[in-house]
Every structure is written in structure tokens, then in C-alpha cells.
């Protein structure tokens, strides 16, 4: 059982930009300027339906949303703007790691001394390969999912990075052979497929 996640897959970034380039792009992000929506139940029917359509296709236009929901394009545009400005929808670029040189998907289970769990989680969350890090129940206290360029890089991570953490008592690792679904979207090879029906409910 996942108790708490310190990092999720959506936070993974392709390590190819310099810090000044990343800062320049950050200036163009859509900031949440309206009061944040903390409960999906606070969305209007049109806003909720618009959020579902954006989940299926983030590139959908306001005009197309309007046609699907049988509302005017201005109403759909207003709903999209509300979702963006309230932080109910956060735009991002979906990167398939295998396509950009990181085909090795790995999972590592770590048995860590209880008093060091927080420190180990924080350390691993900063590693560039990390996609998801969670505190979990069971024989292992930490679950780490990461992506690597190949077996050599993964071996270096096990020996150098994990090996440098004295609080790690034991570990076990596995490699993913195929991604069937990610972020509630089916995968067709490297291509993003359809979203799971009715994944967003209230």
C-alpha cells in the first residue's frame, strides 16, 4: 500500500536544458491567479465536463469543447480559463522516456532503517532518474521507480547512489518490459492511446 509519495511521474524532466533555459521557459507558464479549487465538487457542470475533455485531449479547442458540450465557444473558453487560472488543470508536456533515450524502466524496493526513511526519500527524490518515490507498507519501506539510458547507468545508480546510503539495509530490483498504461492513458507502443473511460468522476 502506498502511504505517501514524495515524487510522481509527472515531475520527471528530460535533463537537457541548462538552468537559465529552464528559467526562461518558466516565465511563460500559466500561473494560477484565481482562488484554487480544492474540491472537484466546486466545479460547475460545464467546468467539470470541460476538465474531462481536456483530460482526453489537452489540445482541444474551445470551439470543439463547445460543440461536444452543446454550449457556446465563449462559454467553453471561459470554463477553460477558469480551470487554468484556478490550478484545476495544469498544462504539461507528456514525455515518453523511451523515445528520448531512457528506455530502461526500473523499480527498486528498499528496506531502510525507520529513522532514516525521510532522509532517504528526500535524497532519492532529487535524483534525475526518479519518476516515482513512495513510502509503502510491507517488507520494504520505500518504492523507487526510475528511468535510465541502459543497464550500465542503472548499475551505476545501484552501486554509487544507493550504495552511498548507509541506512539502506536490503534492496530488490525489477525491470519493466512494456508500458501498458500511464496517467490513465493506454499506450500503443510509444504512442499515447485513449484515456480510460470515466476516469474522472464526482
UniProtKB/TrEMBL annotation:
Pfam families: HTH_24 (PF13412)
GO biological process, any: response to amino acid
Record-linked Gene3D superfamilies: 3.30.70.920, Winged helix-like DNA-binding domain superfamily/Winged helix DNA-binding domain
Keywords: DNA-binding
SUPFAM superfamilies: Dimeric alpha+beta barrel, Winged helix' DNA-binding domain
Domain of life: Bacteria
A molecular function GO annotation: sequence-specific DNA binding
GO cellular component, one term: cytosol
Protein name (Swiss-Prot/TrEMBL): DNA-binding transcriptional regulator, Lrp family
Taxonomic placement: Bacteria, Bacillati, Actinomycetota, Actinomycetes, Micrococcales
Amino acid at each position: 500500500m502506498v502511504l505517501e509519495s514524495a515524487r510522481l511521474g509527472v515531475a520527471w524532466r528530460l535533463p537537457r536544458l541548462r538552468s537559465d533555459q529552464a528559467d526562461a521557459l518558466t516565465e511563460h507558464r500559466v500561473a494560477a491567479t484565481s482562488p484554487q479549487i480544492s474540491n472537484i465538487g466546486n466545479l460547475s457542470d460545464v467546468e467539470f465536463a470541460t476538465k474531462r475533455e481536456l483530460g482526453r485531449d489537452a489540445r482541444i479547442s474551445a470551439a470543439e469543447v463547445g460543440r461536444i458540450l452543446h454550449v457556446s465557444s465563449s462559454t467553453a473558453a471561459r470554463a477553460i480559463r477558469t480551470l487554468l487560472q484556478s490550478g484545476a488543470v495544469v498544462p504539461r508536456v507528456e514525455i515518453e522516456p523511451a523515445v528520448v533515450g531512457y528506455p530502461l524502466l526500473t523499480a527498486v524496493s528498499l528496506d531502510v532503517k525507520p529513522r532514516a526513511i525521510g532522509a532517504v526519500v528526500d535524497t532519492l527524490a532529487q535524483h534525475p532518474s526518479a519518476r516515482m518515490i513512495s513510502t509503502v507498507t510491507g517488507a520494504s519501506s520505500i518504492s523507487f521507480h526510475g528511468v535510465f539510458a541502459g543497464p550500465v547507468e542503472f548499475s551505476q545508480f545501484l552501486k554509487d547512489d544507493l550504495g552511498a546510503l548507509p541506512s539502506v539495509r536490503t534492496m530488490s530490483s525489477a525491470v519493466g518490459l512494456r508500458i501498458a498504461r500511464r496517467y490513465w492513458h493506454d499506450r500503443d507502443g510509444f504512442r499515447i492511446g485513449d484515456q480510460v473511460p470515466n476516469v474522472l468522476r464526482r
